[in-house]
Write a structure and sequence with these properties.
Length: about 325
Amino acid sequence: MIEARNLQKSYGRVHALAGVSFDVPPGQVTGLLGANGAGKSTTIRIITGYTVPDAGWVRVGGVLASRDPIRVRQHIGYLPESAPTYGEMPVEALLGFRASLHGLRGKARKAAVDKAVDACVLQSVRRRRVGQLSKGYKQRVGLATAILHDPPVLVLDEPSNGLDPGQITETRSLIRRLAEGRTVLVSSHILPEIERTCDRVVILARGRLCAQGPLEELLAQGDHELVCEARFQTEPSAKEAARAVGAIAGVGTVLPREMDDGVERWHVGFDPATIGEGDLRKAIGSNLAAAGAEVRLLEREKASLESLFLRLMEQGPDAAQAGSAA
């Protein structure tokens, strides 16, 4: 439903996007992830037609954005991070006004407002002023404005930002309901919410694509990784042990995550076709013993979006792209 190819965008000397390509399949919820400055906001602005790329192209529903930007916008319901609202207007009046901007009149406008109110569970506040609502209800109003014209695509930028845990849970359920029969692209920095909400993820780092694909497939890449935690007497001995572990046949990466009071935590990626998990555990144990380390933990890492995200950020976009899922 959304195709992006070789997107490039610079702001002066800052390269916000450097050749980013990805797909958002129809009927799925896709999460757009990345640290601050990764290029998420620029990507969303290009997709929604608020920014033109320096190079590359975007198609939404088969329509090339550069050729027919108005038609592309008609395909999209967009909720920016700071959704614009008029606090003095009642919810119903605001939705009616926004529906009129989409060209809806008379019975069609009333039907669209009623449908959006029902979909976003706003019946109890439809006649209250927007400025009197809680943050959670304001987000619901923003979502309602995004679906008034019944778009096949929803683009949501940080929809859970600033919400309390209860409101986040409600927003997550609402997004899943709105996704029925639609394609949804969600940008968020709250990784557990993406993990619970999305079918697929696109991960950016420093303006480049790190990985994209079904969430289950990307998480499965972490199945071949051990977590090692040990206490060392000196920093040089820890570095020497890390080099020795990295030299074991079949080990691909040794990524340090934390260091506190002499404790090292490594994530050791390995190729099971070259070395079995049991043999690798023994080899790591031998190297740690030779370094005089006190082993505190040596176990298979539990796959999670957080561990995947951190690993990709540490590897960098160039290394990560080679192993990304299409």
